[in-house]
Amino acid sequence: MTAMLRARGLGKRYRRRQALTDCTLDIPAGRVVGLVGPNGAGKSTLLNLAAGMSSPTTGEIEVCGGRPGSGPEQLAKVGFVAQDTPTYANLTVAEHLRLGARLNPGWDADLARRRVEHLGLDPAQRAGRLSGGQRAQLALTIGIAKRPDVLLLDEPVAALDPLARRGFLQDLMETVAEHGVGVVLSSHLITDVERVCDHLVTLVDSRVVLAGEIDDLVATHHRLTGPRRDPATLPADQHVVAASHTDRQTTLLVRTESPILDPSWTVGAVGLEDIVLAYLESPSAATSRPALEVLR
Hints:
single chain; alpha/beta; Rossmann fold; 2 domains; six-stranded mixed sheet; P-loop_NTPase
């Protein structure tokens, strides 16, 4: 099966700033991917490279089996909604749809019309008079109606209130279920990622530090609590992500696919947010296990 997104040694440099470093990924087709990380980590850079909006400095990237931006056929495979959910303030909703139809050979006019009606958008309303949530939904409608194989969304709900954000994500889930489009969704909000995504990529300081199926990541991370001890004494297959100690007690976040048999440990489950935060705080924890290994 063709990977939805494939990168090998991908890097991007802007003058003196390294925006993405040695990114290696294989994301299977049809996934809904949460792309998380702090500001400046490289999320927008990766999406821009995947959309063909910029070119790599090093390495290579393929989206749906082709080089991003390489021609009309490749461009038709990718829908992209940038961080500011771009719309034209002086154009009406209807004019946006007509523009989408002219620019996209595979445009689905019936889908666009049904979404506008479902959302209650007035076709005669200028985009500049819409609310933030309505503009985001209009941008999503345009991205979906071109009928891409993969939809790239760069923090599309960052400026929305909780109700508008929930509506946007609900519509996104319905679209994925109905049309089978793959999605890469950049977000700061782990709760949103948990709600709609089945795959995770975490970036810190321009590097991938964690990647894989969300269910697998949750299942293979554990919190160990027990008498104080040196984490270096753990079995080799128990990779320590984070450690804290008191005078008498040690608490570890470990990653392992093997059962934890040491009776001195109390083993607890760990939620996705705690896992992500641990890697954000200790990005070097990923260095001994390349992200490529866990993208199955």
